[in-house]
Amino acid sequence: MISFACAFPSIPAFSPRGAAETVLVVEDEAMVCELAAEALLDEGYRVLTAADADAAEDILARERVDLLFTDIDLARNTNGLVLAHRARRHWPNLPVVYTSGGRGQLSQADAVSHSIFVPKPYRLSHLVALANDILRPNPHHA
Asked: Cα–Cα 20 to 30 A to 33, which of 2, 22, 43, 136?
């Protein structure tokens, strides 16, 4: 089992496939963060973690990230919605998946365009399937 501390600094993860796609998981609940990160690692993704939006912005400034998976209400009164909007200013095509246990839906007015919302609790298999659909689309899928 790979240990993840969902706090700054992030821990670059081992990637068995070489130049794997990188997912940034932003989650302030350590156990939820660890489970999400491990599921994505098991699928072959490189995973970086942050416990709040400030730490996530630091990671985005120095690392290549292919998918942002962020909780909305984060530690230290930071916000995944604000994080995603700031990230999209610099990387307009960055895929964003939001999650929250405090709301059942997300207004399109609050979210960045072409983003996805997954309410908590979510299945790890659903998270992995979303990452695969976004980052590794199968052109032969019927």
From this structure: 136
